[in-house]
């Protein structure tokens, strides 16, 4: 009999232990150790940074190979329809999210009675003009777009390649068809390869989770939350509400909640600790695979969502703007509230899902609404804690859209061919 304590058998037991439990243990241990040790815990920051880099290294290859594979598996007309549905879903849920954030903050009034920090008025940032954001989607150099991490531009190139591949495979010329099939097999192989690396990287996740959370707790500490407890409560409360709405949407489309969250919990936990929806892409794509969603949907909806769909961030921007107004004793008029909604949504389109992006959107919104910039410094002090929850919400929103759109498109769910057929919905998908 093999020795139960040999390194090999311990490693095997580690591999067999469910990932979410390993991550939960890392998370709890990180909170405890971070709070107990305080600031000096930052020495272990590289352990967390390695995890973020491992995920980051997979983002661009993953977007490229899954999108080419996904787009070349469907017709351009189908792609257009899926794109339209995904976009509509993102727009509606984002508008709802920012309204929830604003409404809850107006009801609870976080920030009243607090005084703004005395130091200098910081300069706010203006959102880039919409025309520039749109133009940036078309890269003049695809390799530069990859290096810069410009997700929308890379998506543009991959979609063009995917459509060209579809045309090659459907060509009248035997030579083109043959080459198309050859390329298609290569892309399929590359998708499998990237997911295999994702699985490997996830085995490091518990250590990364531990280090990331310990550093945030050690740096921020619970005391920092004190005066901002109300704002934190509003943001976390509104995010819980938003997730309840997701559950209702899933139920309305007769999606099995258990199976959805069974697969979504890994990306949700990863988003919580890495505070980056772009960085979480490899994990959320793997979760979509496990839900049985065809790559024709998720290869498009997830990277797009990581860039433009940020429900948690919208909640935060709404709530924090009310907080800023309250601290500086300003009354927000209806017109200003509308500005907040519009600038919040527009700013989120051009901003990538990286840690702290929401804070930049907040400064844009505050400056557009003509409010004082000083109270933003208060929010910045606890931004990491708020970023964790909002990123988790952002990633959940992307997955809900992905799952729901797959449900409404025939053939886009493995294990259920007919949309609306609830019976096939909870069958086991190909595990990845
Ligand atoms: N960190 C968030 C994300 O990656 C963006 C934000 O800062 O709100 O989705």
TrEMBL record:
Domain of life of the source: Bacteria
InterPro entries the record matches: Na-dicarboxylate_symporter, Na:dicarbo_symporter_sf
Membrane topology: Multi-pass membrane protein
Gene3D superfamilies: Sodium:dicarboxylate symporter (1.10.3860.10)
Classification via SUPFAM superfamilies: Proton glutamate symport protein (SSF118215)
Natural source organism: Halostreptopolyspora alba
UniProt KW keywords: Cell membrane, Membrane, Transmembrane, Transmembrane helix, Transport
Coiled-coil regions listed in the entry: none
Principal subcellular localisation of the protein: membrane
Start-end of Acidic residues biased regions: 423-432
Keyword Endoplasmic reticulum: no
Localization: Cell membrane
Segments crossing the lipid bilayer: 19-38, 50-74, 86-109, 149-168, 189-214, 234-253, 337-362, 368-386
CC annotations in GO: plasma membrane
Pfam families xref list: SDF
GO molecular function, a single term: symporter activity
Region (Disordered): 410-432
Protein name: Dicarboxylate/amino acid:cation symporter
């Amino acid at each position: 009999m093999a020795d139960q304590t040999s390194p090999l058998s311990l490693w095997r037991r580690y591999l067999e232990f469910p990932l979410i439990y390993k991550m939960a243990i890392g998370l709890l241990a990180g909170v405890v150790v971070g709070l107990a040790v305080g600031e000096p815990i930052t020495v272990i920051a590289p352990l967390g940074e390695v995890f973020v880099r491992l995920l980051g290294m997979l983002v661009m290859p993953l977007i490229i190979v899954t999108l080419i594979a996904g787009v070349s598996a469907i017709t351009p007309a189908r792609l257009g329809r899926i794109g339209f549905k995904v976009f509509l879903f993102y727009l509606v849920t984002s508008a709802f999210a920012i309204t929830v954030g604003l409404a809850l903050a107006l009801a609870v009034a976080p920030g009243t009675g607090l005084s703004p920090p005395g130091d200098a008025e910081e300069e706010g940032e203006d959102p880039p003009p919409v025309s520039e954001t749109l133009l940036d989607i078309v890269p003049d150099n695809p390799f530069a777009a990859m290096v810069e991490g410009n997700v929308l531009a890379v998506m543009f190139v991959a979609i063009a390649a995917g459509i060209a591949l579809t045309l090659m495979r459907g060509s009248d010329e035997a030579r083109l068809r043959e080459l198309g099939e050859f390329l298609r097999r290569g892309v399929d192989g590359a998708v499998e390869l990237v997911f295999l690396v994702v699985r490997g990287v996830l085995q490091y996740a518990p250590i990364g989770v531990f280090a990331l959370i310990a550093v945030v707790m050690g740096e921020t500490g619970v005391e920092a939350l004190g005066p901002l407890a109300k704002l934190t409560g509003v943001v976390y409360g509104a995010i819980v509400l938003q997730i309840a709405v997701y559950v209702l949407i899933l139920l309305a489309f007769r999606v099995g909640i258990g199976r959805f969250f069974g697969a979504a919990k890994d990306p949700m936990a990863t988003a919580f600790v890495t505070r980056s929806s772009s960085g979480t892409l490899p994990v959320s794509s793997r979760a979509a695979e496990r839900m049985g969603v065809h790559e024709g949907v998720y290869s498009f909806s997830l990277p797009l969502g990581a860039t433009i769909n940020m429900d948690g961030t919208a909640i935060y921007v709404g709530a924090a703007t009310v907080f800023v107004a309250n601290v500086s004793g300003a009354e927000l008029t209806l017109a200003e509230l509308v500005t907040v909604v519009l600038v919040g949504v527009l700013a989120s389109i051009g901003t990538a899902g990286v840690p702290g992006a929401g804070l930049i959107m907040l400064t844009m919104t505050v400056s557009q609404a003509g409010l004082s910039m000083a109270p933003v410094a208060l929010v910045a002090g606890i931004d990491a804690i708020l970023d964790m929850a909002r990123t988790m919400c952002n990633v959940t929103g992307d997955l809900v859209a992905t799952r729901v759109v797959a449900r409404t498109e025939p053939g886009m769910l493995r294990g259920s061919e007919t949309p609306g057929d609830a019976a096939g919905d909870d069958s086991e998908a190909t595990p990845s």
